[in-house]
Write a structure and sequence with these properties.
With 609 residues, the protein is an all-beta fold. It has a domain of 173 residues. It is built from two helices and 59 strands. The strands form seven sheets. It has a 32-stranded mixed beta sheet that branches. Strands 14-13-17-19-22-25-28-31-34-37-40-43-47-50-52 form a 15-stranded mixed beta sheet, with no helix packed on it.
Length: 609
């Protein structure tokens, strides 16, 4: 029997009670095993004193929530809303949200208005607080809206950031434009995402703060990279596999998300991301992008996205960018750059807003790497006064696919790797997915501790620039090394040439094919920080050609023996050595003079004497 009065309700143990219409109470008691549900096709949400609360996942891998037993008192509302289901892979996620907007305005049948403090219809000065699981704050599926002075505080786990279940704000659909101005978003919980843009929407966040803090993974959670169940970062990225929160995500096809004059922080996994889609555009202008913990990335680029990072400050633990087929642009927030984006992305910035955006340079500070590719292609363009400051390698290309890095120092761009490596080209050391889709696979360095060498692919042209790893240095002076070790840490025959082209540029350091090995023979989840860590020994190329091109009065100062497969020096360029030493060159074992205006091919060794 259910005991109730006009303002109280008691649910006996192990009993399920159906609430067929929105109900107000002053007291609710749910005994152990008791539960409340809405009729089929509807959802039920509990708020107490304007705070959503009281629900948790029924099972770790499931999507449905159940009510938590206990005693609730105060201004209690049990709100019955229409369902808002989202199917992703084989699962259906039953969204509930405080505010649902579409092209017709507020959909009250889909909104839990009792969870909104303020006048919902004004779309400003609103506060949404949640202490339950998997409750969304604002969900926009159509129309153009600007929400001002929005405060959202969510404390409790989400379930899946590939679909947005439990996010503070989500815009979805190609007919959706959502602007958040002066928003303050705070979340705390496993994949309790701050902002998600999906399915062709255009989401613009201005003058806002997004602060996200990860939770504790369920004790029976099995780490996986299968998206429907994935709630923590794959350790194969070189990040602790228990990190479990990305602040933002861009999903679907042709979706756009832009952050202007905003501060976005995650204490684990990542801050910005494009994922599970294609042709997205992610932009940040004059924004601070930080991982407040010891690890995590600034942005992840998946699905051939365009990412424009202008005038931003990155402070990250692991990587500024993980590039998986993305087109990345680091530059200043100049008036021309911002105006161009305002037009191309339909940002809607007024002349006054444009004038108020001060020009800044992008500054990247990473405790480990700058940009990392894993088994993928992609490009990076560095311009303006961008400074990339890394404790380890600036550009870590773990791929045999074509990549292009272009650095233009005309306006003061700098690359400052403390370990002295500008570019490392190497095999992907991601061990892949175990047969049960868990993250239990291990990586083994195939030539570690042996005298074996990779098998040469005799059909591979070591002088070809097609599908190479290309580094273009223009109008810049740099110090650092460039290494190509493809083939040495893969059990298959990998081939990839590295092409370093200097145009009106100066580089002091080594450019060479190398033999490389990890610091340990085998890497599992407990050695995750060994991913991407190799030691180089310069040696003649096997399947890893190194091509150097010096143009327009460029100068390469060779600091140690370097092994090349092609060298081109135009008539205005030079090769020098430091400290009054001399450099000698052999080509296929024959001592050969270095003559400007000449191209050399073969087994080239430059030796500092």
């Amino acid at each position: 029997m259910v005991y109730s009065s006009s303002n109280s309700l008691t649910v006996p143990a192990d009993t399920t009670v159906t609430i067929s219409e929105t109900t107000t109470l002053s007291e609710l008691i749910i005994n152990s095993g008791g539960n409340l549900v809405a009729p089929s096709g509807y959802s039920l949400t509990l708020t107490v004193d304007g705070v959503e609360t009281g629900q948790e996942l029924e099972t770790t891998n499931g999507t449905d929530t159940v009510f938590v037993s206990g005693e609730y008192s105060g201004d209690i509302v049990l709100t019955v809303t229409e369902t808002n289901p989202h199917t992703f892979y084989e699962l259906t996620f039953p969204f509930r949200q405080a505010l649902y907007l579409d092209a017709d305005g507020i959909e009250e049948d889909l909104s839990v208005l009792s969870a909104i403090n303020g006048t919902a219809s004004s779309l400003q000065d609103l506060t949404i607080i949640s202490t339950g699981m998997d409750f969304n704050g604002i969900y926009v599926a159509g129309g153009s809206y600007t929400l001002n002075n929005i405060n959202i505080d969510l404390d409790g786990d989400g379930r899946c950031d590939f679909v947005g279940y439990g996010a503070a704000v989500m815009g979805t659909g190609s007919d959706t434009t959502l602007v958040l101005d002066n928003a303050n978003i705070v979340t705390h919980g496993v994949v309790r995402t701050g902002v998600i843009a999906g399915d062709g929407s255009n989401l613009i966040v201005k003058n806002s703060t997004i602060s996200t803090k990860q939770g504790t993974l369920p004790s029976d959670y099995v780490q996986t990279v299968y998206p429907a169940y994935m709630r923590s970062v794959p350790w194969m990225l070189g990040i602790d596999g228990t990190e479990n929160l990305r602040s933002t995500n861009v999903l679907g096809t042709n979706t756009k998300a832009t952050y202007i004059n905003s501060t976005i922080t995650s204490d684990g996994w990542g801050v910005l991301s494009t994922d599970s889609g294609s042709n997205q555009t992610l932009t940040a202008i004059n924004s601070k992008i930080s991982t407040s913990g010891n690890e995590g990335y600034g942005t992840y680029a998946d699905g051939k996205p365009y990412e424009y990072l202008y005038g931003c400050k990155f402070n990250v633990g692991s990587y500024a960018v993980i590039n998986n087929t993305g087109y990345i642009y680091f530059d200043d927030s100049s008036a021309d750059n911002v105006a161009a984006l305002n037009t191309s992305l339909s940002l809607g910035l007024t002349d006054e807003e444009l004038a108020a955006i001060t020009q800044k340079s992008t500054i990247i500070n990473s405790d480990r790497f700058g940009v990392m590719w894993h088994s993928s292609s992609g490009t990076v363009n560095v311009a303006g006064g961008t400074a990339i400051n890394t404790a380890e390698t600036a550009f870590l290309a773990k791929t045999s696919n074509a990549i292009t890095i272009t650095i233009d120092g005309s306006d003061g761009a700098q690359i400052n790797p403390q370990n002295g490596i500008i570019l490392q080209v190497m095999d992907d050391d991601d061990p892949g997915i175990a047969s049960d889709k868990s993250n239990t696979a291990t990586y083994t360095d195939p030539y570690y501790g042996t005298t074996d060498t990779p098998t040469a692919d005799t059909s591979f042209d070591l002088t070809s620039t097609t599908d190479a790893a290309a580094l273009n240095l223009n109008n810049i002076t740099l110090t650092g090394n460039c290494y190509n070790s493809i083939g040495w840490t893969s059990s298959s025959t990998s081939t990839q040439n590295m092409v370093v082209t200097l145009t009106n540029a100066s580089l002091t350091g080594m450019i060479s094919s190398t033999e490389a090995h990890h610091r340990v023979a085998t890497i599992s989840a407990s050695e995750y920080q060994e991913i991407g860590e190799v030691t180089n020994t310069p040696r003649a190329a096997i399947n890893n050609g190194t091509i150097v091109v010096l143009n327009s009065g460029s100068e390469w100062t060779v600091t140690s023996t370097s092994y090349l497969t092609s060298l081109t020096i135009d008539s205005d360029s030079t090769i020098t050595v430091p400290n009054g030493n001399s450099v000698s060159m052999t080509v296929d074992g024959t001592v050969t003079s270095i003559v400007p205006g000449t191209t050399y091919t073969g087994a080239i060794i430059l030796t500092v004497n």
